[in-house]
Fold this sequence. Notes:
TIM Barrel; two-stranded parallel ribbon; 13 helices; alpha/beta; single chain; globular; four-stranded parallel beta sheet
Amino acid sequence: MVQTLKPEVAVVLDRALAAEDITAEEATLLFGTTGPEYNATILVADELRRRTVGDIATYVVNRNINFTNVCIKRCGFCAFSRDFREEEGYYLPIEEIVRRAQEAWDYGATEVCIQAGLPPQMEGDLYIRLCAAIKEALPDMHIHGFSPEEVLYGSIRSRCSIREYLEGLKAAGVGSLPGTSAEVLDQEMRDRISPGRITVDQWVEVITTAHDLGIPTTSTVMFGHRETADQLANHMALLRGLQQDTGGITEFVPLSFVHTEAPMFLKNLLPNVRPGPTGMDVVKMHAIARIMLNNWIPNIQASWVKEGSRMSQLLLTAGVNDLGGTLINESSPLLPGRSTVSSCDRRNSGG
């Protein structure tokens, strides 16, 4: 590396360029870089991206269908969920979900992403019946559905094991699982920002069981709130370890915390909650993800919904090679402060 860099940073970046896995401690060091070291980190991430996946950015034409915002949980970062007694609560019947999937197919979508809140008294087989209905109408549509939190909830409501529930989802047509409901895979942090949410061990169980059954998953992290660099690095180290064991993770997607309507920020429910990441934080998160995960998870995705089209284009020069879905429309429990999103023009996404 360039001789003007701090020696400890140069050693880490040289190891990355030599195709070695950097440690969580070394990733933490990179999170603290500024100036020339920050710039060098981005350059190394971009070079690793070029070597691993080339210069073609990928995306999928898809639609998110969030069929209910009614949820029994009250996560501090979520602006989407509503109590079943609130006027803003909604619940789409299966027929309407299928209609929206058909509409997406007619528009050119090849995938629907199904996620929602956790409605009280939910029939345990709802997710399975929903998938079966979509597949009956659209056998070639890929169903990317149900977070680990939803899988756990479905298994509890069905009084069966996680494995049995995942087997039912697979038989009904689920092709892959979103690796959401991860936030930061640090139990102490989770207990603060989302008490009562799926635990780290439960999240890992759902993901590894899905992989064992041949169901691939994505992986995510939410950053820019109260987490530390150590926690982010350890989160990625955990994911890398899972991938080394199972090989079932298709991509890693950093998700910026959007503070504007998040209860833990808006209502000051927790101290020291940051108003989301800075632009520099966003670039650094994606670049370090490329450096740390490159040998095991080749696809690093930027969420254009979170970052906007301009920042997402910039991230393509900082280790990112995938822009996710075009999203015909969306209202998501994982997008605090952003209740609706219009579709991304394929011209603007590089298509």
